[in-house]
Amino acid sequence: MKFTKSFTLFLLLFILISSCKSSQISLDNLTFKQQLNALFPNATITPIETKDHFSKAYQLVLKQSLDHKNPKAGTFDHYIYVSHSGYKNPTVFITEGYNARPRTYELSKLFNANQIQVEYRFYGKSRPASIPWQYLTNDAAIEDYHQIITKLKQLYTGKFISTGISKGGETVLIYKSKYPKDIDIAVPYVAPLINTQEDPRTTHHINTVGTKDCRDKITQFQRSLLQNRAALLSEIKIYAAEKGSKFNEVSIEEALEYATLEFPFSFWQWGGNCNEIPSTTASPEILFEYMNAIVGINFYSDASYHNYLPSFYQHSRELGYYGFDFTPVADLLQVVSNTSNTRFAPKNVDLTYNPNYIRKVREYVENKGNQILYIYGGYDTWGACRPTPKPQLDALMMVLPKGSHSTRIKNFPKNDQQKIMTTLNKWLGS
Fold first, then answer.
1. How far apart are CA 96 and CA 163, in angstroms?
2. pLDDT beyond 60 at 14
3. Nearest CA to 324 among 404, 378, 259?
4. What is the pLDDT of residue 57?
5. Are 226 and 254 contacting, i.e. CB atoms less than 8 angstroms apart?
6. pTM over cut 0.85
């Protein structure tokens, strides 16, 4: 009886091992493109411009499953970009938060690495004509990455570094929490982990960052925009006509008020210069030009509204976001009555927020997240939502004083850059 059980277990183990081996594809004696074809047999693969240190580069359009648990749900065209430098080199895996524009990332240059850019499902070229919202979840996107990485590890033998910026950096942390063994090193840039659908930490940041004089100038500027409402609306109409922008989804009146409410967030996010804020006596043209430079009135145009629908859906459902502080201009508002950004989410879709999703990600990275390098700017409003890793973790938090949402490794002082590179090289084993 014992012999029979032992033999049965041996047989099951043999079948399992054989099955795993059979899933491995032989890539020997193939050109690089042939190797990609073997790994992604249902993809359309075309060469793209080769830049920087890469020797080959290709665009892959995958037939990606809408639902990885249900193949019958169908597929969508999923765009990824593979840039090759060497089979044994590190591989930088970029989890874009939105669309993917082929370019060479900082870490890829620093380590002469291969680079894989993956467009987030349902953004950019990977967006179906009609979005099936039920399949736009972080877990579905993470499964996309897991399947892609699993195949690429048959091609590349060096260590894998995952990285992304802002929402893409948040995705790095989500991916790390779901598949901690897929990636050796995680480098999220300026990545928030947001607590609620309207995280109050961003408002606290806006009300405490910088100097009081600067914050007062920001409030005065906000008020000037709405105190000159008629003239500012005229400026927006002129600008819209010049750019061919339409404001049907969000009216020009709404756009002005939302841009006014958004101004402090964007000002600190992008490291605004207090000395450049126009005075209360500035002309409407100057007021508009500065507001437009910081916020961008076209963000509220029909084209942008359409482009960012997936983002606001995700923020409303799983990621969380920030709310608007009415306090500085409450007496001047005429149109906007809700502090929530759900105004920009798709209509007639369930926007019930799941408070547990990011909470679980935060719990993982703060308590178990080893070999994670965090990059933040001290002025950046999103930095108010950064995680706080436990001291015993093998992780490194780097915050550039007065840095913005554009903060990168290259922006740090030389001694901090050396600290960063020493840490990354240690994790890479080099």
1. 8
2. no
3. 259
4. 98
5. no
6. yes
